[in-house]
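Q: What structure does this chain adopt?
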Amino acid sequence: MHLSMVQRILGLMLALFSLTMLPPVGVSLYYGDDHWYPFVGAFVVVGIVGAALYFPVRKVRRDLRLRDGFLIVALFWVCLGLAGATPLLISDVPALSFTDAVFEAVSGFSTTGATVIVGLDSLPRSILYYRQQIQWLGGMSIIVLAVALMPMLGIGGMSLFKAETPGPVKDQKLTPRIAQTARALWGVYVLLTIACAAGYLLAGMSPFDAIGHAFSTTSTGGFSPYDASLGHFDSATIDAVATVFMFLGGASFALHFTVFRNRDPKLYWRDPEFKAYFWLVTTIIVITTVYLSATNYLDHPLKSLRFAALQVVSLHTGTGYVTHDFANWPGALPALLMLISFISGCAGGTTGGMKVIRWLIVVKQAAVQFKQLVHPNAQIPVKLSGRVVPPQVISAVAGFFAVYFVVFGVMMMLLMTFGLDQVTAWSAVAATLNNVGPGLGDVFVSYRDIPDAAKWVCTVAMLAGRLEVFTLLLLFTPDFWRK
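A:
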């Protein structure tokens, strides 16, 4: 393992990240809120730390190995949480403790959208913009952005890309060079964000709100400049725009790029993961709408459809926007909405969770097992789109499921140990590990009032969910550190 090379890249990426403190300064000056100083201070502090890491090893030139990539990704996400908390610590509005500042920053970068801040409506525009910005950067990930810039820095990026890209299959390239692939993904991401912002503008949002909500919608992050989230606007048109772009943000950006490059929308329907994603979301929207209408919870079927569509897509993609008090919806609906967050969106999208493709493989493997009970001597392969799924992929998916649920169980027990009730503990881990944000019980609106120890467990859960568990746990295995 090349620790000096790891240090060099961490320094470069922190220095790169320090530049993201400048747009909030511009927002502050434009709106005249006189709250630019936390970001100038953070720019200096983070820049100095990045330079201090980089300069002692600036002449080191070595090829990165896959283990180096995993270490860089895990360490950078930890450093990102600390660096991202810097302006929130410097600022006196809101007055956050170290724990709360790190929680808020990690929640933003991991696109979880859980918050410890109450009174968002009265905060300076620079702080509100910064919260939206960090979600957008975390959505496609600063790591992928760094990979796009690596050739200019003389650093290969394939190991970083493999460590950061979600999903069971990580070797697909859209273009011959990995940096071109990263730039292609970012290009689609930017275009989708612009389209989303335009949709919000046409729906009646102000430019500030449209840009901020486009950042959190495309990234499926869920932060909003308002305590009432999207419910602040109470607009069916805005809800429709949000629903469409959350759904697109939950799909694979590699698939978006392929469709765009070939100018063939039919490619969406040829992708088995996207097809499963579409039908799953549609089915749960129908079930939720029918349930709300049958119980007369809302006064009109179209209103039931409107709120059901937004909340289902919001929870399924891990965005976490709220337009209605879904925690008090009748029957099993609150639990259903939390459970679908485990499935989440597609691999290669901006969502957290376990990904549709893994669940699809598990369902097909279960179907094969049933067939083999009837025909024990038959050799029946698992297939997707007519192609056999390699046994090592099936094994990796099974291992991921096992580890994911063990981590979930351990974290839930820890939260209950720290005094949270069962519903709050269960939903808090589900909401943070799946990068959703709002939970049930005491964490539906805010995580502000839970104990600091519980906040740190949730912070680790957000990082583990964003890095798909293994990238983080891998650092604690002896084999990772052996030469």
